[in-house]
């Protein structure tokens, strides 16, 4: 099964483990990804509110490049990228003036995008629907037996207008739950599974951001989860990198590893942690993963040991005046 592939900025930088683990499991699952040539940033979330025309043109350029190369399905592992790509395709078709203005901007670069030319999908959707639980279970050589997992979807991929016509419940989805069960893990109840992690709120109001993160960690801890599994680079970063700040702020002692669902698939298929970039997380997953008897000790890398502060993340800047 071959797909167009849009990694987005996060997977080439802070979320590199997501990219590494995705590539590591793709072949075993019969997936082949053709990366869009010369792709550019999707603009994350803030740009859309600053300059709508430029934002849609920025995103539309990726769609145009993918369609121009003959791609028909475009896969995005990053939830923010997925939402932006799908939203742009949807709105360009729904609102003709927006589509016209966007294509006028694209024309300056010799490009054009006909909305509806591509089907934009999240990586989770491809793995669950096209590969399927049974096929994944058949690949499991090291079941995640005894590992209590809290599946965290975040607030982006379940938005009703952009969830791809999925049969998933937008308020209480279960695809990631069933996937973890297919790997042998014990899935805990996690009522806040679609609540927001705060996004870039850490750069705007630390108090607000820390409370949003605390609620998620507290909910997982209440159900005695060994770790949280996510599918969004922003969610992983907030829950992992800011966990120590949350502990200092509230006097808590959370120590919950945050891993990508692709890393969990790889572990269950018998890949070693280093092959999946496990060990690059801030909150070490070593103690949790010893429950499944991984044969390789997870070493915390310099990146994992490095303390990050609120200034360490590259963030868009709002022009004053």
Tell me the radius of gyration: 19 Å
Order of strands across the widest beta sheet? 2-1-3-4
Model regions low in confidence, pLDDT < 50 over at least 5 residues: 299-321
Mean pLDDT: 90
- Helix count equals 15
Tertiary shape: globular
The main sheet comes to: 4 strands, parallel
Helix coverage percent: 40-55%
Give the termini separation.
50 Å
Tell me the number of structural domains.
Answer: 2
CATH architecture of the largest domain: 3-Layer(aba) Sandwich
User: What is the string of SSEs from the N terminus onward?
Assistant: EHHEHHEHHEHHEHEHEHHEHHH
CATH topology of the largest domain: Rossmann fold
Task: Indicate the CATH class of the largest domain.
Answer: Alpha Beta
The secondary structure category is: alpha/beta
What is the gist of this entry?
This protein has 321 residues and is an alpha/beta fold. 43% of the residues lie in helices and 9% in strands. The chain contains 15 helices and eight strands.
Walk me through the topology.
Elements: E1 2-5, H1 8-11, H2 16-26, E2 32-35, H3 47-50, H4 52-68, E3 73-76, H5 79-94, H6 96-107, E4 119-122, H7 123-131, H8 133-139, E5 148-152, H9 175-182, E6 186-187, H10 206-222, E7 227-230, H11 233-241, H12 243-250, E8 258-260, H13 261-268, H14 286-289, H15 302-305
Parallel strand pairs: 1-2, 1-3, 3-4, 5-6, 5-7, 7-8
């Amino acid at each position: 099964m071959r797909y167009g592939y849009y990694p987005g900025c996060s997977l080439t930088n802070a979320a590199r483990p997501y990219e590494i683990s995705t590539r590591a499991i793709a072949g075993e699952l019969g997936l082949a990804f053709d990366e869009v040539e010369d792709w550019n940033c999707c603009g994350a979330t803030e740009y859309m509110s600053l300059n709508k025309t430029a934002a849609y043109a920025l995103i539309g350029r990726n769609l145009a490049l993918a369609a121009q190369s003959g791609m028909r399905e475009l896969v995005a592992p990053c939830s923010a990228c997925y939402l932006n790509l799908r939203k742009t395709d949807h709105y360009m078709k729904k609102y003709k003036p927006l589509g016209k203005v966007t294509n006028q901007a694209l024309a300056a670069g010799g490009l054009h995008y006909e909305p509806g030319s591509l089907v934009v999908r999240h990586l989770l959707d491809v793995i669950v629907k096209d590969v399927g639980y049974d096929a994944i279970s058949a690949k499991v050589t090291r079941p995640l037996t005894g590992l209590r997992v809290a599946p965290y979807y975040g607030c982006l991929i379940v938005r009703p207008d952009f969830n791809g016509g999925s049969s998933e419940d937008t308020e209480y989805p279960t695809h990631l739950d069933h996937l973890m069960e297919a790997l042998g893990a014990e899935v805990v109840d996690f009522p806040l599974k679609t609540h927001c992690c705060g996004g870039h709120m850490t750069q705007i109001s630390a108090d607000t951001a820390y409370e949003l993160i605390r609620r998620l960690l507290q909910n997982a801890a209440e159900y005695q989860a060994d770790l949280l599994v996510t599918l969004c680079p922003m969610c992983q970063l907030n829950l992992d990198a800011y966990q120590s700040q949350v502990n200092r702020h509230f006097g808590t002692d959370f120590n919950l590893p945050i891993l990508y669902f692709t890393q969990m698939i790889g572990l269950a298929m018998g890949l070693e942690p280093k092959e999946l970039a496990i060990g690059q997380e801030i909150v070490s997953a070593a103690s949790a993963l010893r429950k499944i008897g991984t044969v390789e000790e997870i070493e915390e890398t310099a990146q994992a040991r490095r303390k990050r502060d609120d200034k360490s993340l590259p963030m868009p800047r709002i022009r004053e005046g």
